[in-house]
Design goal:
160 residues; mainly beta; 6-stranded antiparallel sheet; 32% strand
Length: 160
């Protein structure tokens, strides 16, 4: 519990984001968050969970250097988040009617609010219930998003 008072306390408003580099201890206190990370086999828990906690390994990799974590604001109906790694890219899209989203490589569309349908280039329309995601293979280059709501689109980054 003492560690919690040493952590940065950041309150995000809907649509805002932060990028946490590897090794930063973090926790979610309340609300809905979309977390995306690169492929990894080293997710370690620091406490407050019934899941396994490997304290020795955690102490070896945790980054304790003090640093500011800048909040990225949302920028209207579509926000491309600044991700300073090449592993992935993430964008938020507010859908109100019909929107088009270009994608490169395999992509996932996660719905976080509303009633959204994703149409593929061959015309297949897939409803995306809140909390669910659809996956598109690398041969898709564009989604047509219909309805009203909010989705997050994750795909490989610049060099993936």
């Amino acid at each position: 519990m003492v560690v919690a008072v040493l952590m940065n306390f950041v309150v995000l408003r809907p649509g805002e984001a932060i990028f946490l580099r590897a090794g930063l201890l973090h926790a979610y206190v309340s609300g809905l968050g979309v977390e995306i990370m690169a492929a990894s086999d080293n997710v370690l828990r620091g406490g407050l969970t019934p899941k396994h906690i490997d304290v020795d390994e955690l102490l070896q990799i945790v980054d304790t250097a003090p640093a500011e974590v800048p909040v990225q604001p949302h920028t209207g109906d579509t926000t491309e988040y600044d991700v300073p790694v090449d592993d992935f890219a993430l964008r938020r899209v507010r859908v109100d009617g019909e929107s088009r989203a270009q994608v490169a490589g395999p992509a996932m569309v996660l719905a976080t609010s509303g009633d959204v349908v994703v149409a593929t280039r061959d015309g297949e329309a897939l409803p995306v219930p809140v909390g669910a995601a659809v996956f598109a293979t690398a041969d898709e280059s564009e989604f047509v998003l219909r309805g009203r709501g909010e989705v997050f689109i994750a795909q490989p980054g610049a060099t993936a």
